Amino acid sequence: MGKSRQGGWVVPVVSLWFSALFLHDIAKASSPQQRGTPLVPLWWITWIAAWLTFWAGTVLTASGISDDHDTIQTLRDAEVDSLFTFSLLRTLAALLFISAGILLSTTVLKITRTQSHWTPTRL
């Protein structure tokens, strides 16, 4: 691993794509005859979409609900709509996180199986 890639784990924005880059490099090195696996970009896109959906639910509904309610019956219609949007986006985010987890697990399993059949060549 080069020095230029080591900082990718601690720099917040850069760390978003370094995990996918490293996983792609590992998959590619594990099976040189193939060019990696299409599961890596699919996992990364799903993972990023899950985070964006998760935070969109927070940002879109944060200003739509006031704190001056004692019970749910005192909520205005707009606030109920905001809570519905929040719940819908968080549910979608949870489904995306589950999908990303399945894709990542499948990718790691595929890499592990490829590496278990790998035999070193003598130079």
Task: Give a quick set of tags describing it.
mainly alpha; 123 residues
Tell me about this structure.
With 123 residues, the chain is mainly alpha-helical. Helices cover 68% and strands 0% of the residues. The chain is built from 4 helices and no strands. It has helices at residues 3-6, 15-30, 39-62, 77-116. The longest helix has 40 residues, at 77-116.
SSE arrangement:
Elements: H1 3-6, H2 15-30, H3 39-62, H4 77-116
Helix pairs in contact: 2-3, 3-4
Uncertain segments are: none
Summarize the helix and strand pattern as letters: HHHH
Shape: elongated
Number of β-strand runs: 0
| Major β-sheet annotation | none
Q: Which structural class best describes the helix and strand composition?
A: mainly alpha
Helical amount among residues, as a percent range? 55-70%
The number of helices is: 4
Instruction: Write down the overall mean pLDDT.
Output: 78
Question: What is the CA–CA distance across the termini?
Answer: 22 Å
